[in-house]
Design a protein that fits this description.
There is one protein chain. The protein is α+β, with helices and mostly antiparallel strands. The protein has a single domain (11-321), classed as Clavaminate synthase-like (Double-stranded beta-helix, 4-Layer Sandwich). The protein contains seven helices and 16 strands. It has helices at residues 16-28, 37-47, 52-63, 99-111, 183-186, 192-198, 245-261; strands spanning 11-13, 70-74, 113-117, 127-129, 147-150, 162-169, 178-182, 203-205, 224-225, 232-233, 240-242, 263-265, 272-276, 280-284, 297-304, 320-321. The relative contact order is 0.22. Bound molecules: 2-oxoglutaric acid and fe (ii) ion. Fe (ii) ion (FE2) is lined by residues 150, 152, 282.
């Protein structure tokens, strides 16, 4: 992997009045139960009252996520001094409404609807992304070694359209970087033969280690699909296996092109990265947790643009996909 380059991503900066307005709306949603349908309805209504530049920026991104497929929003209300200790436990989630959880949910409602997968983090809509002692080398968000490029839940028929990652607390050394690579920058670097192979159903993508066993179809699928000039990606470096020699070559080339075009962003408290999971893969650089209660802490929510399409995966028309 080449030396990490810190390149600014497309961003949207809230002015101080905007931060205050978002904070007020989020506080109105506290206390509450994040996963309760009534609370989610209130969060959806609150989206309408968010500052116009924020709603406009998110809606523009929803229509087209740009060459980088990521939008970073700066200046969201996160009061680091008022936060509790970074949760130390594996699979911790945020079921009680807090300002950051309300911010994530309001914005997920502007992109579509929030959604979660029962097999992962107990199906909670707002999940903690924190380093866990003993899981340093785990290929998931509990780890702190390099996390390789992946689409979120690439194996799933209804993968999330957007991954929202809000920084509550940065790592001690300020070296942890969210890495992203967008197909719109990767595609021009691929040979014709590799593009052809990536469009063929010659890959198996298994569920990530964060999912319980027994999920997924294990049917061969392509890595690229849709428009030849702007395709969707489905891959995870550690979960996608090429089934043919040409698929193997193409996947290696794809990985190199991701490294060449990778952008790294070090999120600060109040920064939210919205990753367009259809066209962008993401990962994270290594960092050094101390397990002292002040480690890096992000909260994560997925958004699905058209929830209706996954209705048969969601009992009682809820927000949790149970298969
Ligand atoms: O820790 C990060 O910056 C990203 C982790 C990740 O890939 C995820 O939570 O989906
Ligand atoms: Fe991820």
């Amino acid at each position: 992997m080449p030396e990490t380059q810190v390149v600014p991503l497309a961003d949207l900066v809230l002015d101080p009045a905007g931060t205050t307005d978002v904070d007020k709306l989020a506080r109105n949603l506290c206390p509450g139960k994040v996963d309760a349908p009534e609370w989610l309805s209130r969060a959806r209504d609150a989206w309408d009252a968010l500052p116009l530049p924020l709603r406009r920026g998110v809606h523009r991104f929803r229509r087209h996520s740009g060459r980088q497929g990521v939008l970073v929003v700066h200046g969201l209300p996160v009061d680091e001094a008022a936060l509790p200790a970074t949760p130390p436990a594996p699979d911790s989630v945020q079921r009680d409404a807090t300002v950051p959880a309300a911010v994530l949910t309001m914005l997920a409602c502007g992109l579509g609807d929030p959604a979660a997968y029962l097999a992962e983090k107990s199906g909670a809509l707002v999940q903690d992304v924190v380093p866990v002692r003993g899981k340093e080398n785990f290929s998931g968000n509990a780890g702190s070694a390099l996390l390789t490029f992946h689409n979120e839940n690439a194996f799933h028929r209804h993968e999330p359209d957007y991954v929202l990652l809000l920084c509550l607390r940065a790592d001690h050394d300020r070296i942890a970087g969210l890495r992203t690579a967008c197909l719109r920058e990767v595609l021009p670097l691929l040979t014709e033969a590799s593009r052809e192979a990536l469009f063929a159903p010659e890959f198996i993508t298994k569920p990530p280690p964060s999912f319980g066993a027994g999920t997924g179809t294990h049917e061969p699928q392509p890595v690229l699909s849709g428009a030849a000039d702007d395709p969707d990606i489905r891959m995870a470096t550690i979960a996608t296996t090429p089934l043919t020699p040409r698929a193997e070559t193409a996947l290696a080339e794809f990985g190199q092109a991701c490294d060449t075009t990778a952008r790294t962003t070090r999120l600060a408290p109040g920064d939210l990265a919205i990753v367009d999971n259809r066209v962008t893969v993401h990962g994270r650089t290594a960092f050094r947790p101390r397990y002292d209660g002040a480690d890096r802490w992000l909260q994560r929510t997925f958004a699905i643009a058209d929830l209706r399409r996954s209705r048969d995966h969601r009992p009682r028309d809820g927000y949790v996909l149970t298969r």
